């Protein structure tokens, strides 16, 4: 039975709404780019690097994540990274992606924004043309840095506004609440951009409240700790706020202790609009279908719940209703055929 549900979701068109491009940097590519760019790595082999992928919390992961991206120097590196990701998720039936990149982490290393954006966009446009994968690109601010740094990055991004679809907030959550960035995100919204904020991954439910009511976010990334606050659950459900949940990430970063304990079904039963995403697939053990497979294995998910998850990914995306429609029709037809 479970394998039939896996086959069903595999056949569906899927969208990924929570993906850090730098988190799709596979160990083999770290080594290939290190060699190409003459970067000396503190690891002797792919296996040794992979052995470092044991995390007790978000910060332990972030330390390895920022170290890993030190091999990204040239436009071609950002292109190769993004193109490898698109080719990989094409195999998983992903037809639309809304991906983050972390420009401050590269600017700090002296990599110009133009280098980053042109490499990423070249791959995204090729993915649209050759793989039929539509996309949105989200510039994410690092919350462990200051709001001034975010404002400076926004100023640098001005020349590239036509190439950017929205702004995000990621990195070390605890001690860096959304309110720290209230002014810069107000400016992003004034400029007409969508925003999506990591909140309630490790940080408290109050950070999710701030993201909603103070920053007027268009989406919540993770949001797991919302479940600690019944009033917040009700508000998120009433507003049909999209939550981008990342099951394998949650397991690897110990947001949940076992996949069997993942609160996904509780979230669905509470009326929350949740979606399935891979976050940093090179570090957390898998891409889109690996996340679905792990959930289907561990939880008593019904086909109705999977249908809801598949639809939420599109209705929670920044595609127009007209762009969503054919994908939703295809999903509905696949589930109707399954249930018949
Ligand atoms: O899961 C994450 N949380 C916060 N920051 C991040 N940066 C990359 N991945 C993550
Ligand atoms: Zn994330």
TrEMBL record:
Substrate binds at residue 280. Residues 13-333 form the Adenosine deaminase domain. Zn(2+) binds at residues 18, 20, 198, 279. Binds 1 zinc ion per subunit. The record marks 222 as: Important for catalytic activity. Coiled coil: none annotated. Catalyzes the hydrolytic deamination of adenine to hypoxanthine. Plays an important role in the purine salvage pathway and in nitrogen catabolism. This is Adenine deaminase. InterPro entries: A_deaminase_dom, ADE, Ado/ade_deaminase, Metal_Hydrolase. GO terms for molecular function: hydrolase activity. The active site is at residue 201. Gene3D superfamilies: Metal-dependent hydrolases (3.20.20.140). It catalyses: adenine + H2O + H(+) = hypoxanthine + NH4(+). Its cofactor is Zn(2+). Belongs to the metallo-dependent hydrolases superfamily. Adenosine and AMP deaminases family. Adenine deaminase type 2 subfamily. It holds the Pfam family A_deaminase. It comes from Marinospirillum alkalitolerans. Keywords: Hydrolase, Metal-binding, Nucleotide metabolism, Zinc. Its EC number is 3.5.4.2.
